[in-house]
Amino acid sequence: MDRYQRFAKSGVGRFVVGRLGLPDPHPLRRFTPGQPLLDGPVLLGGTGRLVEPVADVLKAVDVHREAVPDQRYAALVFDATGIDGTARLREVHAFFHPVIRSLGPSGRVLVLGTPPEEAESRIAQRALEGFTRSVGKELKRGGTAQLVHVAEGAEHGIESTLRFLLSGKSAYVSGQVVRIGAAAVEEPADWDRPLAGKVALVTGASRGIGASIAEVLGRDGAHVVCLDVPAQGGELSEVANRVGGSSVQLDITAADAPARLVDHLTQRHGGVDVVVHNAGVLRDKTLGRMDSGQWDAVIAVNLTAQERINGALLGTNALRGNGRIIGVSSVAGIAGNVGQTNYATSKAGVIGMVDTLAAELAGRGSTINAVAPGFIETKMTAGVPLMTREVGRRLNSLSQGGLPVDVAETVAWYAHPASTGVNGNVVRVCGQMLLGA
Known about the structure:
Pfam families: adh_short. The chain is α/β, with parallel strands linked by helices.
């Protein structure tokens, strides 16, 4: 909790925040092992094709089909797949209007629709995006809202996504549109350790977001191969030991790096199941002051190295069946940022890589997706000037910065063996930024 957040929750702070209409960051409910999916009942509505599949996923939760007066709900879930014309959009209002103020702290709003290009009414299904993003900006006390487009035939591939979006694992994800396509789903033997027996590679794993990704994937049962440059060898070994994994010291921009990495993964582990391209560098300067070396360094690490490693993995079939490739993009790659033309170019390129490879990976029974973090509390952002840091923290619907674990939990959802239908997505982990993206 940052200083402003602590002040806002003090007696004097609550008074000042309320009187002046200042940002009011609410403590977020984040996942801890053994925590129930939700801490209260779910209200489930709609008349589409997903009502019963959702109820089946939530069979261990108290699900209400009709609103109970004075009941506080942990989640409001509406199946909008039955909306086949714009006049029926009134059904969304009719469901949420009476109960939206009954949503509890860190509550979840989830709207389920059909991909607009597949729908009887493309207009109505596309309209749901504006509704959901707006609801996310209206919610208070850590609430989030998402839209999930579920393709025909994907009705029984929704569980991993529902478990993620309704739980504390998605604490800093809001206002997002997720697409689930039809695919063969591999359900884990143990939903608490879905990656048991899997091998996961995490680049840039020695600290920050990379270390958190390694920890969460290790928690979920994976053997994590932690990779970073030799200069980070000491910290890298500490992370690998902490997660029960192994380490590889390698400069991923070296000419022979992809071949060396593939040889290591195949000889030591028989291949790899999950590849997380987290390694990245910054060389910030406005374009007129940025020299070619600063440009080249960022593109080489953040983008070209990923492209070359993916080519080597797919060219040798080192990525095993139901495999996952996960890129770490940035909201800068979506909205741009002053002094980061090189960085934003590289991060937009990561999104382009997802678009380019999604169909090929689907043909292999695998997936590629990306996360796009916003303001995340790390050592790097701690060095940002105070006012810039405060703007980054407050200009989102949750009025606070995210944590490295928020990115890691999103990566773990993509990595889940039951997320095979989740392919070609770019999900922002930004608390729903209010400007620019």
